[in-house]
């Protein structure tokens, strides 16, 4: 792989000229407000443009500036984000705007290091804000840009290696100093989204095809290379459907980690995903139920559930699977039959009885939204 400053300047000029003619009309391209750029870039992480557009409109209408978002209750922010996924993005964005309110007078600073230090802001997002909002020559390198540049420069090292990312970032840094930064950043994104797509690059439509080393060498469809991914860890989750007087028992997840601060049914996570028998699932449910009723006094160890005797008086009410980036859940909703919830009466910050009609007011992970929809709307009768 080799390139010169001159070749990258030509690349940048050609690409920006193409972008001026072919850019899609997207709502966040109608502004250079750094707050709205940060909101859009946060939403666009691992989420399709078409999905983001209505969420973006609703979000900036509800919270038109950094201070409005900073002053909002976290539960309200999470509820507005519901359905967009990757909820940590919403929590971090909320916290970032609280920093902006408290440390910068409610205005996102025109300073790369300060933006990079905000909660949840990585090198790409900081580069996007600095280049698009402030027109600073700051490279913004995401998966789209890695793919475009790996093909254009015929980079045959895995792009997820730090050294390869550094090489590509350095090349983009050279290019962005030769053009209007906000236009080149968006042009690179647009080329990756519309033309230099993952599996079948549309080289015949590409404005820089004549200079693309990957096309010349016939390697473009195979690039970029990545290191082998680890297999997703599979986990069985046994969730309890416990009702009392038309209200459902719900618990709130911890404020950090996976699905932080969201609501779920009381659950127990089994260590892996073998073909658990029904009785083994019921035993896990019974263990969790006893702990809800009597505290953590029961001696049964859920991690050795496969060795425990069968439990009774439960039925499986619903089941769903959900895939995270590095984890796959199989969620089995189990309902105790004939169980009286006389002992499960305590309401606390992380557990409460929720009337059926008010369940939608809470923020549930997508897999629980699916299960609740099935269980509450007649697909399964409880």
TrEMBL record:
Catalytic activity of the protein? Hydrolyzes free adenine bases from 7,8-dihydro-8-oxoguanine:adenine mismatched double-stranded DNA, leaving an apurinic site
Q: Which GO terms describe its biological process?
A: base-excision repair; mismatch repair
Is Hydrolase included in the keywords of this UniProt record?
yes
Enzyme superclass (EC): hydrolase
Function, as annotated, reads: Adenine glycosylase active on G-A mispairs. MutY also corrects error-prone DNA synthesis past GO lesions which are due to the oxidatively damaged form of guanine: 7,8-dihydro-8-oxoguanine (8-oxo-dGTP).
Family membership, please give it. Answer: Belongs to the Nth/MutY family.
The molecular function terms in GO held by this entry are: 4 iron, 4 sulfur cluster binding; 8-oxo-7,8-dihydroguanine DNA N-glycosylase activity; adenine/guanine mispair binding; metal ion binding; oxidized purine DNA binding; purine-specific mismatch base pair DNA N-glycosylase activity
Tell me what this protein is called: Adenine DNA glycosylase
Q: Whose protein is this, by species?
A: Alicyclobacillus hesperidum
**Record-listed E.C. numbers:** 3.2.2.31
Q: What taxonomic lineage is listed for the species of origin?
A: Bacteria, Bacillati, Bacillota, Bacilli, Bacillales
Q: How is the cofactor bound?
A: Binds 1 [4Fe-4S] cluster.
Q: Which parts of the sequence belong to the HhH-GPD domain?
A: 43-194
């Amino acid at each position: 792989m080799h390139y010169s400053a001159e070749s990258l300047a030509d690349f940048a000029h050609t690409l920006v000229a193409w972008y001026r003619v072919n850019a899609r009309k997207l709502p966040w391209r109608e502004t250079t407000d750094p707050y709205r750029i940060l909101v859009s870039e946060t939403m666009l992480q691992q989420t399709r443009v078409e999905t983001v557009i209505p969420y973006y409109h609703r979000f900036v209408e509800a919270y038109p500036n950094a201070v409005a978002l900073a002053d909002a209750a976290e539960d309200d922010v999470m509820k507005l984000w519901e359905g967009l996924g990757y909820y940590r993005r919403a929590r971090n964005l909320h916290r970032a705007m609280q920093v902006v309110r408290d440390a910068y007078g409610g205005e996102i600073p025109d300073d790369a290091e300060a933006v990079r230090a905000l909660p949840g802001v990585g090198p790409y997002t900081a580069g996007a804000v600095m280049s698009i909002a402030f027109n600073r020559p700051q490279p913004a390198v995401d998966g789209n840009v890695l793919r475009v540049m790996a093909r254009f420069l015929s980079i045959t090292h895995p792009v997820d290696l730090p050294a390869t990312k550094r090489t590509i970032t350095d090349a983009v840094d050279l290019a962005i100093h030769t053009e209007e930064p906000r236009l080149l950043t968006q042009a690179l994104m647009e080329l990756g989204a519309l033309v230099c797509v993952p599996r079948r690059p549309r080289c015949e439509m590409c404005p820089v095809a004549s200079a693309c080393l990957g096309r010349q060498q016939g390697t473009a469809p195979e690039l970029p290379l990545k290191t082998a991914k680890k297999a997703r860890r599979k986990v069985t989750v046994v969730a309890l459907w416990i009702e009392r007087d038309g209200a459902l028992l719900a618990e709130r997840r911890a404020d950090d980690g996976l699905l932080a601060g969201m609501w779920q049914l009381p659950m127990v996570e089994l260590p892996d995903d073998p073909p658990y028998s029904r009785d083994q699932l019921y035993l896990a449910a019974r263990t969790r139920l006893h702990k809800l009723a009597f505290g953590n006094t029961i001696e049964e160890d859920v991690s050795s559930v496969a060795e425990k005797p069968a439990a009774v008086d439960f039925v499986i009410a619903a089941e769903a699977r959900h895939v995270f980036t590095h984890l796959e859940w199989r969620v089995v909703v189990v309902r105790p039959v004939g169980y009286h919830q006389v002992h499960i009466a305590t309401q606390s910050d992380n557990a409460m009885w929720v009337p059926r009609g008010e369940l939608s007011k809470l923020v549930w992970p997508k897999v629980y939204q699916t299960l609740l929809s099935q269980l509450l709307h007649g697909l399964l009768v409880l």
